[in-house]
Here is the input.
Amino acid sequence: MAKKSSKIKLPVRDKMVRTHRISFLLNDKEMDAVNRYVKRYRVQNKSRFYRETLIRAILKQFDEDAPTLFD
Here is the structure.
């Protein structure tokens, strides 16, 4: 009896692939602050931390700038 081949198909996430690179510079005091934060709060992935922090700030600003019904 031959075994059936069971191929597991993973979901395609082409839309979520990160292809755009952004780089920025920090001065010594800013880098010290980031390093203290990373060490204190045990951040294991700095790239993810930077990305999430940036997007959180952007979304917060969008929310604050959105028109309201009663202004």
Summary: The chain is about 45% helix and 0% strand.
